[in-house]
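Pipeline run #58 for the internal structure catalog. This entry was flagged by the ingest filter as a single-chain record with no existing model, so it goes straight to prediction. Upstream metadata was stripped on purpose; only the residue string is passed forward. Reviewer on rotation: M.T. Logging verbosity set to normal.
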Amino acid sequence: MHRVMWFTHHLRGGGAEKAVASLSEYFNSHPELGWESYICVVYDDPVLHAKLRNVLVMENHSERGDSRVRKALCVRRQMKELRSLKQQWQIDVCVSFLPGADILNVHSGHRAGMVVSVRNVESRFTHSIWKKWYVENSYRRCDRIVTVSKMAERDVITFFHTDPEKVTTIYNMLPERQSLNAAAGFSQADSSEKSGEDDSHAVRNAKCAGNKSAVPEVSEGGQNMAWQAFASFIQNRKVFLNVGRLAPEKGQEYLIRAFAVVHEKMPDSCLVISGGGPLHEQLSCLVKELHLSEAVLFTGNVPDPEHYMERADVFVLSSLVEGMPNVVLEAMQAGLPVIATECGAREILAPTTDPCYATDEEDDAAFGILVPAADSTVLAQAMIHLMEDEALRHDYAERAAVRLRYFTPERITAEWKKVLDDCLRKRQSVRQ
């Protein structure tokens, strides 16, 4: 049994952190793959830590307010500590996620193979020669590079001058869903398992038929006040849902402005935004300014957004920048038709097109609707179109099952296993 270490700074966050947890747990649950899996983090999270196996927490980390000198010295200590952990746990391959972790991985030495996982189009965040140099340094020193999208792969090769033979794209896996009854407190009496149907399939059929009452109801005490407020808010309404951090890059300002146009045409529509972040007050003020207080609901962070998805009619991704938006896959899995901005969702919704192409109008793609980022006018048109066209919503919901086959845990981990096995073989041949 070989050993792989998935290394990142922390487990609480976005797609990279979810990928680490999902990959590690899947490998540990399937010993036939031949890899025992470890997670190494700089900053611990006791809640998430308790749910995962083989988590290693580093002792050296910087504190808020540390000077640049203290941070630089801490980085050197972290490199030494990571090398020691690789030796202690006999790690064969270490896979790092995000640029800061990449630097530590490739400079920590040891016999282990080194893989860098690129989670975004890094040129968008490279605004200095220094940043470009240390990213290129990581890409040059590692054994393999795994990008989360073809768009990121092209960026690694062209902007950072990397050998194409070194780069592979592996998409994020779609997490295996737990039973709704066990995970979210749905009443057993309302369970779709009673009829022998798969949960997501039953929800999709109910939603496509426009029958929200057929979606499983919440049992007494089974959900918190946020859920109860949401369930009451959406009654007898057409529901648009957005899930994401309330931050500039998520583009909710454009979504709210688009919804103002939608709501004027569809007074029975509402917009639900799930997530927390620094723009909460600013976005709330915008809602009031546009006289939408009775039609827009901010739920804050919710532990199980997929259950909110199951009560919505249309999912809208308004982001300006994404690596690969996992939330689109999750919405499709919940049976939701999707509208997404050109922020990285094209490879999901229009897989046969150029991943770097960006439309300047509504694009009714194979598996969802794509619209230009930061364009409230086109977004509003697409929202009205999809909500008014029940047949199109049903069609997209049905096609989603076909598209999601490309993101199954079995398929994605098989691709990761090929990378790990190849990296191990190359390291062994060098040592011989």
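catalog note: The chain has two domains: 2-173+409-431, 180-406.
catalog note: The CA atoms of residues 36 and 229 lie 43 Å apart.
status: ready for reviewer M.T.
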